[in-house]
């Protein structure tokens, strides 16, 4: 699916924006560590996201889906080793670090479905 707008911390923006040509990127916080950030005030962050959304919406007609013609290796850093334990129960998931798992997906659609499944599984530990 085409991506027009991404928002998040500066680390997410730096890592993700090169993957989507022409994406509008809005950083609303500065990452200081795992689960620690210096955030804009809600009012300033909302205004920045709204401005970014207006800009992105103006370019929607020009967005194209870039075909993925190879398998995808997906790596997920979980918030706990318990969550990685749970996710590693799936046969396609491989544990690569105490709180990090990965899997290989033949298509983007498959990758999204696996990620949705992991998200649903994570509910068991919240």
How would you portray this structure in words?
Strand 2 (24-33) and strand 3 (36-39) form a beta hairpin. By secondary structure, the protein is of the alpha+beta class. The chain contains 4 helices and 6 strands. A 3-stranded mixed β-sheet has the order 1-2-3. Strands 4-6-5 form a 3-stranded antiparallel β-sheet.
Offer a quick outline of the entry.
With 126 residues, the protein is of the alpha+beta class. Helix content is 36%, strand content 28%.
Strand-helix topology:
Blueprint: E1 5-9, H1 10-16, E2 24-33, E3 36-39, H2 42-57, E4 72-77, H3 81-87, E5 94-97, E6 100-105, H4 108-122
Parallel strand pairs: 1-2
Antiparallel strand pairs: 2-3, 4-6, 5-6
The number of domains is 2
* Most strands sheet: 3 strands, mixed
Low-confidence spans: none
> How large a portion of the residues is in β-strands, by DSSP E?
25-35%
Task: Output the keywords.
126 residues, alpha+beta, 2 domains, three-stranded mixed sheet, three-stranded antiparallel sheet, 6 strands, 36% helix
């Amino acid at each position: 699916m085409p991506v027009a707008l991404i928002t998040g911390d500066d680390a997410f923006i730096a890592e993700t924006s090169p993957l989507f040509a022409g994406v509008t990127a809005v950083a609303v916080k500065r990452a200081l560590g795992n689960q620690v950030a210096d955030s804009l005030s809600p009012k300033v962050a909302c205004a920045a996201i709204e401005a970014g959304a207006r800009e992105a919406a103006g370019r929607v007609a020009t967005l194209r889906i870039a075909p993925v013609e190879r398998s995808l290796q997906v790596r997920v850093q979980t918030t706990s080793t318990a969550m990685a334990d749970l996710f590693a129960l799936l046969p396609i998931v491989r544990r690569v670090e105490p709180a990090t798992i990965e899997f290989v997906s033949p298509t983007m659609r498959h990758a999204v479905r696996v990620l949705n499944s992991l998200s649903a599984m994570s509910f068991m530990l919240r």
